[in-house]
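cache lookup: miss for this entity combination. No prior model stored, computing from scratch. Input as submitted by user K.M.:
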Amino acid sequence: MDDLIRIENLTKIYMPKVVLNNISCSIPKGQSVAFVGHNGCGKSTLLKIIAGLVKPTSGKIECGKKLLFHYVPEHFPKMQLTAERYLRWMGRLDGIAEQEIGEKCRRLAADFFMTDMLNIPMKNLSKGTLQKIGVIQALLAEPQVLLLDEPLDGQDTDSQQVFIEKVNQLKAKEATILMSCHEPELIRQIADKVYRLENGLYEADDQAVNAVSI
Amino acid sequence: MRRTIRQLTLYQFEQYVKTNKYVMPFIALLVVQFGLYMMIPVDVVSSFIISGVFIFLIMVWIGVTSWELEDQVSEQVIILRIRSEKIYYVSTVVFLGLLSIYVSILALIFPLIQNVLNNNQVFIRQLQSDDIICAFLLISAYGFAGGILGSFFHPRIMRDRKTALTLTLLIAILSVTKLSVKQTLPSAALVTWVVPPVSEAVELFQKESYFVLWKVVAGYVMMVGYAGILAFVKIKLLIRNKF
């Protein structure tokens, strides 16, 4: 498989802490990669550096072309807009036709058991529901790379299963999945490759995956 | 690209309206307009120019409140989805431009309604369509410069919010009082050239009873040109600093 993303000798320092230390790896197109490790080890920072949102202190990231990233953040922000209005705007930015956006929003909202919450301002929604909105906005269109930063955080069990199915559907369409997570079940069901971040980047085996939730 | 900028501008506009951040500046605008046109008749040119200076200050206020309009995470989600930081930041500038146009229209409607209600007695001479067009151009240019100045010290350009707010306030006041400051303290000219040319644009119309076209164009270019340069620097800094 061709490498979609190549990371070379990447270091990120948030003074005085070295968050990422001389990391190198290659991610082929269509691969699903999980980054695991303790809190604060730099998983989220690595995802943001790969997406070009955060500047590395040194090192290089090479992406084949201008990739379309969609991002499920760890904490989705509260907003004044209703979930439906927000998702509509995101759909428009994705270039989806107006009628199709409505259908997609309703379908995804139903899949994630939140149809009756679409017209509530996001500032009044629970953490779990906000997280679902974070997931839905990322699934409105098909990205080339899907970034998942602790995507199951706060979601109910049924929604977690729906989420895993949706991500696997995207994977089947050759989308590359990069995730930072703590749930061994999510890793087992989605990831092709697992990296452990701990003073560097190491390929993790099954034993390490089982130890993730510790 | 134009379609994306339009969508983003409308999205920000909806966000802005929902936050109710416009309420206080809108009240301030009404108070200023009421105060300006309370003692009639007033001079056409000078009243519109003074109105422009107040719109500049109100837009500084609106620009400052725009710092918190979009959460950092939702900014990241949008930037990735449109694949361009530049387009996103340009849309924030367009949004402030659009707001300054709305505020300018409001600032013009008030005296025009007053004038109709007072049987054309609000101004010392008959108001002409040229006056309205020139006033609109100048006021919106003042407003745009104010908005860009207010939004300049974004949290990712200056992390210390107190310093950012104090600096914005100082620059805004200095922009308006620049000429008097220079008269009192000539060496201040070494610093004052950096701040928006509000005083210069006001001085152009001193002793004028009618808007002179070249002066209107000069004032407009000065203010919009300054705002454009400031917006360009802001976008460059935001792209360089990232998140």
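stored under new cache key. The interface with chain B takes residues 48, 51-55, 66-71, 73, 75-77, 79-81, 85, 89-90, 92-94, 121, 134, 137-138, 147 of chain A (CB under 8 Å).
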